[in-house]
Write a structure and sequence with these properties.
This protein is of the alpha+beta class. About 20% of the residues lie in helices and about 25% in strands. It is built from four helices and six strands. It has helices spanning about 45-50, 55, 60-75, 80-85; strands at about 5-10, 15-20, 25-30, 115-120, 125, 140-144.
């Protein structure tokens, strides 16, 4: 393996988020029962040791902490409430980003997709866009 990333596995009973790296495969702890959260950095210690987060995703930790704290305070009751919790605005870490075309190449960050997993129904819902766009763009349902 020459690259790294994350992978989500799920069945009817649960979902598991994994950090994948040349150092191995590591299970990421849930942030709350039934809730896995991922931004753009490793969440387990071994692969995080060699990650250049300051270069490639300098605000990923800030976004992760912001979301984790927000979810802990206002625990969403359903998927629609969860989507609303993922929408951020001015003065908040950029969780839902549209590219700023005035910035130089490499700094035009954008959220590309939103994924909602429902292990009990064996469905992965995928939105081609940010959580803020969930009512304006189509969802694609993948059935396991």
């Amino acid at each position: 393996m020459a690259s790294s990333g994350s992978f989500m596995l799920f069945d009817q009973a649960r979902a598991v988020l994994l950090d994948l790296s040349p150092a191995g495969v590591f299970e990421v702890p849930a942030v709350a029962p039934g809730t896995c959260l991922r931004t753009n950095h490793f969440l387990t210690p071994t692969p995080a040791q060699h990650e250049k987060a300051w270069l490639y995703q300098p605000d990923s930790g800030e976004r992760f902490t912001f979301l984790k704290d927000r979810l802990a305070r206002t625990g969403p009751a359903n998927a629609d409430e969860m989507l609303q919790q993922l929408v951020t605005g001015p003065g908040e870490p950029g969780v839902t980003l549209l590219p700023d075309m005035s910035r130089e190449l490499g700094l035009r960050w954008a959220s590309l997709a939103t994924v909602h997993l429902d292990p009990a129904a064996r469905i992965a819902r995928v939105l081609d866009g940010t959580p803020a766009e969930h009512g304006d763009r189509p969802w694609y349902d993948l059935h396991a």
